[in-house]
Specification:
This protein is α/β, with parallel strands linked by helices. The chain is built from 11 helices and 14 strands.
């Protein structure tokens, strides 16, 4: 039986669709099974309270950024911010970049208005183009091959930063993305012939978003079958019963490091919604990793219609998350931040004094990102 799946492209009528799927299914893994196991081990330490976690990177990647110089800049930014987290927390940090696959985005509407014209929504470069015309916004399965090639280039550069050092590999950075487009993700599942385990080889650490975590849908089913460490976004509409059921489906053996719950509730709702969920998960005995995404629940629009986030709101949710977790006797392991490696002006706060300053370097393909100085400020406030 084919399970339902939301947020999927409409492209199965494309004449090359079957050939593209066959090519992806025969492609080399983007990441190695041994790397995935190492990432899982590092997250296991965080689940036990012995390490921290940083997930950081672009809201949506661009194929044009999959070059060594840009990727190296992003990796250095992750390392810099993780070093601050390690210094402030006194613990080692498992580092994950939102990179090498963050090419697809869920959208709240199938259409958006750009310069007064109604167009199909931009769903990330894996699906369609950011260019604002009807032809560019068509869903094109050939973009899956472009995403694979771009991801491969990014992974190569990330590995170059490991420099063959076991010490470096023990903390990453590994790559992570939202596993949204099932045609792409399912084609990259591979079986370890030695152990029989199935791994999603498009990334080390995939996660399911708030819009696709339905218990009886295809995303949860796919995640239940793979042996990667996995994440699930938990928003303000989540209830304790549903989250515990997700834990039962995705972490049936109660394995530390298997499941990360990424909390994204908004600075107001978190005070009511989070504590009952933490209690229920702990009572059920699931050793999950708890991290805060203090950005997605705090997006606002300026009078001109531009999306932004206030750093003060981000800090407010992050610190509330830590206080609630610690009050409930759980480990607030870390942060999931949308952040650029350059001095963008997309969020208000710190070096971006007001909404007028947003226009200086507002470059995101989707949602607003912190710049490095703002991200360091969030780390300092969290610890």
């Amino acid at each position: 039986m084919t399970l339902p799946a939301t947020q999927q492209p409409h492209w199965h009528h494309h004449p090359e669709y079957d050939l593209i799927e066959a090519e992806l299914s025969g492609a080399l893994p983007l990441v190695a099974h041994s790397e995935i196991r190492e990432a899982r081990r590092a997250l296991g330490l965080a689940a036990l309270g012995e390490a921290r976690v940083l997930q950081l990177g672009d809201c949506a990647e661009s194929f044009s950024d999959a070059d060594p110089v840009t990727t190296s800049r992003k990796v250095r930014n992750i390392q810099k911010i993780a070093a601050r987290m390690a210094e402030r927390s006194g613990q080692q940090v498992a580092r994950f970049g939102r990179m090498a696959g963050q090419y697809a985005k869920p959208r709240s509407s199938n259409f958006e208005t750009v310069s007064g014209i109604d167009l199909p929504s931009f769903r990330g470069e894996l699906v369609n183009s950011f260019e604002a015309d009807n032809l560019s916004r068509r869903h094109d399965p050939e973009r899956m091959l472009q995403a694979y090639d771009a991801s491969s280039a990014v992974v190569r550069e990330v590995r170059a930063h490991w420099a063959g050092s076991a010490e470096e590999l023990s903390g990453g950075p590994w790559v992570a993305h939202e596993a949204l487009v099932l045609d792409y993700e399912n084609a990259l599942i591979r079986t370890d012939e030695r152990t029989g385990e199935q791994f999603l080889t498009s990334t080390h650490f995939p996660w399911i978003g708030e819009r696709t975590r339905q218990l009886d849908h295809a995303h949860v089913s796919m995640f239940s079958a793979i042996s990667n460490p996995i994440g699930v976004k938990v928003g303000p509409t989540a209830d304790p019963e549903t989250v515990v059921r997700l834990c039962q489906l995705l972490d049936p053996h109660h394995t530390p490091g298997r499941l990360t719950l990424i909390v994204r509730m908004g600075r107001e709702d978190i005070h009511v919604a989070l504590a009952p969920i933490v209690r229920a998960v702990r009572r059920a005995g699931h050793p999950v990793v708890w991290i805060s995404d203090p950005m997605h629940g705090n997006t606002i629009s300026t009078e001109s219609g531009r999306k932004t986030r206030l750093v003060s709101h981000i800090i407010e949710e992050a610190t509330a998350f830590r206080h609630i977790l610690e009050t409930e006797g759980a480990h607030a392991a870390g942060l999931h931040l949308e952040a650029a490696a350059t001095d963008v002006t997309e969020c208000v706060g710190g070096p971006v004094p007001d909404e007028k300053a947003l226009s200086e370097r507002y470059e995101t393909l989707c949602d607003p990102r912190l710049n490095p100085e703002q991200a360091l400020g969030v780390i300092d406030s969290f610890f």
